[in-house]
Amino acid sequence: MRPQQPFTGADSSSPTDRRLNTLIRHIGDTTMESRNSNISMSPTAGGDASVFAHIVQAPEDPILGVTVAYNKDPSPIKLNLGVGAYRTEEGKPLVLNVVRKAEQILVNDRSRVKEYLPITGLGEFNKLSAKLIFGAESPAIRENRITTVQCLSGTGSLRVGGEFLGRHYHERTIYIPQPTWGNHIKVFQLAGLSVKYYRYYDPKTKGLDFQGLLEDLSSAPSGAVVLLHACAHNPTGVDPTLEQWEHIRKLMRSKALLPFFDSAYQGFASGSLDGDAKPIRMFVSDGGECFAAQSYAKNMGLYGERVGALSIVCKSSDVASRVESQLKLVIRPMYSNPPVHGPSIVATVLKDRELYHEWTVELKAMADRIISMRQQLFEALRARGTPGDWSHIIKQIGMFTFTGLNKEQVAFMTREFHIYMTSDGRISMAGLSSRTVPHLADAIHAAVTRMG
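^ that's the sequence the OP posted. Answer follows.
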């Protein structure tokens, strides 16, 4: 079969048609040359210069950058106290036994598939997470006034909540404690909220500036959002007492301030899951509305699985249902739906009585080891006669201690003792061990006595 000739509309054998076909080919060649010329002129098409040549090198994250510097240090005595992750007495990452058991159960279940989860995540995980933080007997749960969606750990939960507030809440200002976890600021600013601060930490007492906190929240505009650390405040390790929490609750409700709890350390602070959740439950029990972002990174050691949940407590089940519908519209274009493995581990542990009990035992052991590190460091500094009152180390709670060391002292300790921490003097107590406490105490003593 002969190849089909292009239709020219006339007999191509006539002189006129031949000239017409030549003209058509010429126009086509010219067009192609023009296209090729445009392509070669495109800034993305070859050449030595990058279209991103103007991009400047971004600074390292102030927290994650500590680990980068630590990894580059060849010293055998180096110590990383910047990472916000639990370490064993041997300085190794820990996978909980109960997590390994849950994973084995999941692996052995041949009915499990890798299909997409719904936009809101694993339903069983969401229900169990709400019970864990609000209490199984919470009236808000019984009345279906809570909507819970699975998110990408604590950061993702905060971001989804921030995006929802930016779209649907009348007051775009959020008050966060001074100081707070550095990522809080970026998360809420990028969600379109205006970030302001309320006083929290008193450098003189190395404790809570309770009066300053009350004054700043009293002057906040009605309806403003207030970020609250549920327990084990990061970076200071300073928490209000339950009596102070009650004062905060009354003040916030009187001014219609909207509480947004960040719960990254439930059970990890005191060793009690219920005890660490009391501040949140106080706010829920009065019938008011609030937000709560949960993370299972610390208390179940699931850092890399990115397992978290955002719960919004509403006035009625009808409102909660509508809120959930809008949360889906936030999540869908952001990451579509969350992963399945991590929340399946959590759900497996939370729904099984024996596994749950085993988890609480392991969780308390982690919390107790950190409390022991606090006591050992305090006693080591006292034994050395280190100038100053270091009792704040044992008064503070949770993974971190705000030492009170300044930038110059921190730099000195890194330079002379190869100890790495954030420049604000925050150290991770989980990064310490009985073996390394003397080295840290020596470094702090030298920094305080030599650097003032």
